[in-house]
Amino acid sequence: MKDDLYFMKKAYLEALKAYQEDEVPIGCVIVQNDKIIARAHNTREKNNDVFGHAEILAIKKASKKLNTWKLDDVIIYITCESCLMCTGAIYQARIKRVVYGVSEPKFGCLNSLINFNNLALNHKIEIESGIYSEEIEKLMKDFFKNLRNKKEQTSN
């Protein structure tokens, strides 16, 4: 049986794709019965699409594959804590378990700014964090450092 680290490394590979495409390096995989059924990475910049978040794209793929919007028997692995929009989609899809790598203090809604499990919703999610966090944090820091450097070069 594969463990959380195995699947988080697969999500990390998706984040690397985003990084290579100059997207915020967030990746995601959705797992059912120990098999990846959907994977995605951020494409917001590439497609000029506010909904181009890894989680939204992966949820859509998983729903299409399973032919249902109810994903109550899957686990979603995300390199970074989900924002309000993505957390809402995770709850709406009835996903039972979320595993993420690093916290997002500015936008995170699984634990940082808001913890949806503390709201009076009819669905609670198992949440695990900190998986493969050092590698993910380094990737995020490198991305934003490179982004700042590019902005400085264009302004000079």
Q: What would your notes on this structure say?
A:
- With 156 residues, the protein is of the alpha/beta class.
- The chain is 42% helix and 19% strand.
- The chain has a 5-stranded mixed β-sheet with strand order 2-1-3-4-5.
What topology emerges from the helices and strands here?
Elements: H1 4-20, E1 27-32, E2 35-41, H2 44-47, H3 54-66, E3 75-80, H4 84-92, E4 97-102, E5 126-129, H5 133-155
Parallel strand pairs: 3-4, 4-5
Antiparallel strand pairs: 1-2, 1-3
Q: How many individual helices? A: 5
Note the beta-strand portion.
Answer: 15-25%
Q: Can you give the mean pLDDT?
A: 96
Q: Write down how many β-strands occur, each being a DSSP E stretch of 2 or more residues.
A: 5
Q: How would you briefly describe this protein structure?
A:
This protein has five helices and five strands; from the N terminus they run αββααβαββα. With 156 residues, the protein is α/β, with parallel strands linked by helices. The protein has a five-stranded mixed beta sheet with strand order 2-1-3-4-5.
Task: List the defining traits of the structure above.
156 residues, alpha/beta, five-stranded mixed beta sheet, 42% helix, 19% strand, globular
